[in-house]
Write a structure and sequence with these properties.
Layout (H helix, E strand, L loop, with lengths): L6 E7 L9 E7 L2 E7 L11 H4 L1 H5 L9 E3 L8 E3 L2 H19 L4 E5 L8 H12 L5 E3 L5 H11 L16 E5 L12 H10 L3 E5 L5 H6 L2 E3 L6 H14 L5 H7 E2 L1 H8 L10 H8 L3 H13 L3 E5 L9 H15 L14 H5 L32 E3 L3 H7 L11 E5 L3 H4 L3 H10 L2 E6 L11 E4 L8 E3 L6 E5 L12 H11 L10 H16 L4 H7 L1 E3 L18 E2 L3 H6 L27 E4 L15 H4 L6 E4 H6 L7 E6 L2 E10 L6 E3 L39 E6 L3
Parallel strand pairs: 6-14, 7-13, 8-9, 8-12, 9-10, 11-20, 14-15, 15-16, 21-25, 22-24
Antiparallel strand pairs: 1-2, 2-3, 4-5, 4-16, 17-18, 18-19, 21-26, 22-25, 23-24, 23-26
């Protein structure tokens, strides 16, 4: 029989949680991917990044997991044996039943990140299954941006739509505050839109401890700023605007609530300290004259945009950074361009939700997240743990104030142990558990601690729907090839496990059938394209034209709440009613600087999406994992460029090459997050995992604090 070498092109959307949603044209010949190229035409087109172009190597990687595995060595050793799906699923089902019968459903922890499944039903599959099993302890909090989510919730009542790509070329000034959009895309069309703005004469200012790639390409000026001090500089900008009467009083009176209380704080009426540029200079290292100049430039340029990245919110008290930025936008009237309604209707959330019972596990009083107006009620349970605090919860259990004593952990779509703070603590906590299930594509740091690993196919080997309730984009994740080896989709894994657990009504539809039914309803109820149109086009982008006048804010006052009644009711010193600068722990003034004098930041690396792609040879050739250290700091330590150094604090240490550079400010070092944890027999990490150095605590409102840590760097012993 003659082989069929006809080539077909499958249009889909990249699904790797990098912040972008690039269109892809996947060339398939004889059932095998032979090439991947950018998709899209006209104004929606976008040049796909190097990660998307390398996805073929990920699909066919020789170290990809293609069969179920069962642990044979000590936990964490990475020693496994291949087993059948039946044996693996039977083992998992027996353990789930045993833990449920012995300790109750609350003792089951599950976390599903968005990595490689930032779509609809493959991320819901686990939640529905565990709810039908009787419930579980669910996570709360966003690793990436809980500080922003909290600030948005108590200021706007919901997540604002943010600036659209269409708005950037119209802006005359764009302040990139801890934002590196050419590396961490928060929306696929944004980089070309920023380049168009640059060509149109838009002025760019970058505030960041690092001279980022975005600063190099776009910025007219880079302003170095000490980590954790951004809120102070924003407050000083507000001071200049208020003192010089450069605020927009009409917007304040019409759309905001609580300005008088905010003004009192800024002018020193609350604590006797005026938030002057000189005050902020002492804290942040940004010259007072620069702060005053920036304030006048922002107030005197229209339209102007302060675009805040997530990084400054991933600090102790990082919520206050985002709240202060929102306040600054509001008092100048610029919030009008940063808000607006969701272009896809609220029906999307209901239409794309897999039917099933709520999570009815109850364990103690509802935690703080339950009182917030923006929180989803989909996990209807008070048994929740902040996603950043799993290690602490496992180690302390009920005695530490957590809902249960945890015995079983199920990790889906996540390299949790690698990506959350204080990895050594997490590794110790994982040893305490009775059973760990991991669904994965590679033998990651987290997978090495599993008792059972179930192999998951990539998004190019399944069907799904990308239709976020917040709108903006709407696309099919089209299956290009059949799953390799014995790998299965997340939905298929849950379907198979449901049968082992005796759950007969879990789901009897294939992923394509589910997608077709969802698209049919979305087409009828939300006016979006039909399945065949989407199948051919693959992607549909929706523009937002919302504005505050059309869409009142869902806050108690119906306005932008600079003074938050929700925060006031919390009565927590770390969550003040108006945005305030609060000095972080492990700041440059902390007594710990005697031993650990350098502030650590953990930026993203172009060749990775968090910990994804770290093992791909094509991408590893492009960028090396290294610690960036300023020339002055390196010279003090006798460290040359490329030298092997020891980066450490009392939580851990790593052995890593040094990159001596002027692109990071003095007193700060940068270790890109996402590199895989690889400890030696002494516990020193040789993989460059930044989280061996970060602290397993959260900011008062629950934010991840990966950019608040002190370290020391010295030459490694040979």
């Amino acid at each position: 029989m003659k082989a069929n070498h006809e080539e077909k092109i499958v249009r889909t959307i990249c699904n790797s949680h990098c912040g972008g949603t690039c269109e892809m044209k996947v060339h398939v010949r004889s059932g095998r991917i032979v090439r991947i190229e950018s998709g899209g035409d006209g104004e929606t087109s976008h040049r796909m990044c190097l990660r998307g172009r390398a996805y073929r190597q990920r699909v066919y990687a020789p170290d990809r997991l293609l069969y179920p595995l069962k642990r044979t060595g000590r936990r964490g050793s990475g020693e496994f044996a291949r087993v059948s799906w039946d044996e693996a699923l039977e083992t998992v089902a027996q353990e789930l039943k045993r833990v449920k019968d012995s300790y109750g459903n609350a003792s089951i922890l599950h976390f599903c990140s968005m990595a490689d499944a930032h779509a609809v039903h493959h991320t819901q599959a686990f939640h529905r299954l565990l709810c039908q099993f009787g419930g579980y302890t669910a996570p709360w909090g966003f690793i990436s941006n809980e500080g922003l989510a909290f600030a948005s919730g108590i200021t706007y009542g919901a997540r604002p739509a943010g600036y659209t790509p269409e708005q950037y070329p119209k802006s005359r000034l764009i302040i990139m505050w801890g934002w590196n959009p050419l590396v961490t895309q928060q929306g696929t069309p944004i980089p070309p839109a920023l380049c168009r703005a640059k060509e149109n004469g838009t002025k760019f200012i970058c505030l960041d401890p690092q001279f980022t790639d975005s600063a190099a390409v776009l910025a007219d000026r880079w302003i170095p700023i000490r980590p954790g001090t951004d809120t102070a500089v924003l407050g000083a900008i507000a001071y200049v605007l208020i003192k010089e009467n450069r605020t927009n009083q009409h917007f304040i009176d019409t759309y905001t609530f609580g300005f008088d209380r905010f003004q009192k704080y800024i002018l020193g009426g609350e604590d006797g300290v005026e938030k002057t540029p000189a005050w902020a200079e002492n804290i942040s290292g940004v010259p007072a004259a620069t702060i005053a100049e920036l304030a006048r430039m922002y107030a005197g340029t229209s339209p102007a945009a302060i675009v805040t990245g997530y990084a400054a919110g991933r600090t102790a008290f990082g919520e206050q950074f985002h709240r202060m930025a929102f306040a600054l936008e509001a008092i100048t009237g610029n919030a009008a361009t940063a808000s607006g309604g969701a272009p896809i209707t609220k029906s999307v959330a209901a239409i794309t939700q897999l039917p099933g019972p709520p999570n009815q596990v109850e364990a103690g009083a509802p935690p703080r997240w339950n009182a917030l107006p923006y929180r989803s009620a989909s996990v209807n349970s008070s048994a929740r743990v902040n996603v950043s605090l799993f290690a602490d919860a496992i180690l302390k259990g009920k005695a530490g104030g957590y809902p249960a004593d945890y015995k079983l952990l199920w990790l889906s779509n996540t390299n949790y142990l690698n990506q959350l703070a204080e990895v050594n603590k997490a590794a110790g906590a994982f040893q305490k558990l009775e059973f760990i299930l991991v669904t994965e594509q590679f033998m990651t740091a987290s997978a090495r601690f599993a008792d059972i690993i179930l192999p998951v196919c990539t998004f190019l080997e399944r069907n799904d729907l990308y239709a976020p309730p917040g709108g903006g984009i709407y696309a099919l994740v089209n299956k290009a090839i059949e799953p390799l080896g014995e790998s299965k989709s997340q939905l298929q894994i849950c379907q198979a496990l449901a049968a082992k657990l005796g759950i007969s009504d879990y789901n009897d539809k294939s992923d394509e059938e589910l997608v077709r039914s969802m698209v049919a309803r979305l087409s009828q109820e939300a006016g979006l394209p039909y399945f065949d149109t989407l199948k051919e086009r693959g992607f549909y982008r929706i523009k937002s034209d919302g504005a505050p006048a059309k869409n009142p804010f869902p806050t108690p006052s119906g306005k932008i709440e600079i003074f938050s009644g929700v925060a006031a009711k919390m009565n927590h010193p770390g969550i003040p009613p108006v945005p305030e600068y609060l000095e972080t722990w492990e700041s440059r003034n902390d007594p710990l600087t005697k031993n650990y004098p350098l502030q650590l930041i953990t930026p993203h690396l172009r060749r990775r999406a968090h910990s994804q792609f770290d093992n791909l040879p094509w991408l590893r050739e492009l960028q090396a994992q290294a610690v960036d250290i300023n020339t002055a700091d390196a010279e003090k330590r006798g460290i040359g460029d490329g030298a092997i150094v020891r980066v450490f604090n009392d939580r851990g240490e790593m052995i890593i090459p040094a990159r001596v550079t002027e692109r990071v400010m003095p007193g700060v070092v940068a270790v890109p997050q996402g590199a895989w944890y690889d400890p030696d027999e002494t516990g020193a990490d040789h993989g460059g995992c930044a989280n061996v150095l970060t602290k397993n605590v959260t900011s008062p409102a629950g934010a991840f604090v990966s950019n608040t840590a002190l370290v020391q760097v010295e030459k490694a012993k040979k």
